[in-house]
Amino acid sequence: MYSSVYFHKTCRIAQKMLGIAYELYNGKDKNDLRMNDYEFIYALENDKKSSEIIKKIKSRNLYKIIYRSSYSEDALNNIREKNVRV
Q: Quick one: 7 exposed, middle or buried, by C-beta within 10 A (0-12, 13-18, 19+)?
């Protein structure tokens, strides 16, 4: 079930879009990791550069897949191991 939920294409696209929004965010500082989900989304949503991406995520207007590739079983296991470690 883990791979069907966390590796689902829609989940991966939304995660990538959130990462891009954070990269564009102007207010980065060391306290970002102390924010809860609501504070984090609110900060990104009120930032000039990242707000458009956050609006797209919230309205489910996600990016589309333009290229898909297959991973070997070893590569998939490596990715799963990295994602399980927190």
A: middle
